[in-house]
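Attaching the record inline, Q. Sequence:
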Amino acid sequence: VVATMVAALPYAVVWMALSMSLIFMNAGILRRLHAPALLTAWHMGACSIFVHVLLRIAPLRSVLGSKVVEPLGTRLVVSKFFPLAVFYAISLALGNRAYIYLSVSLIQMVKGSHSAVIYCMSAAVGSEI
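Structure, as predicted:
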């Protein structure tokens, strides 16, 4: 157990360092820009570009092995993916808005607790044991 924790430590340190740098970067951008929606749109656009580049570099067939990738139907996209996208965009916009009003140290503490909160909620609904 200790060996596993020691092996995971560098990943946790890198995650925390990247998280802190992202918080400071967003706070700096929003102190000058005052447009959380623009930062959200920029984030969503960058994610879309990175996904398209990743799909060009490593197509789904190479990632999934021999599994056949079926095209998504409109009904599936509207019923499953669209609500997730809407709530993710709202979460990003409200999170970016928080950078205008809250201190960076408070945002770091709240962001650091996300993993624990998500685990507790997952355990509460039975998706984690």
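The radius of gyration is 18 Å. Residues 11 and 50 are 22 Å apart (CA to CA).

More tomorrow.
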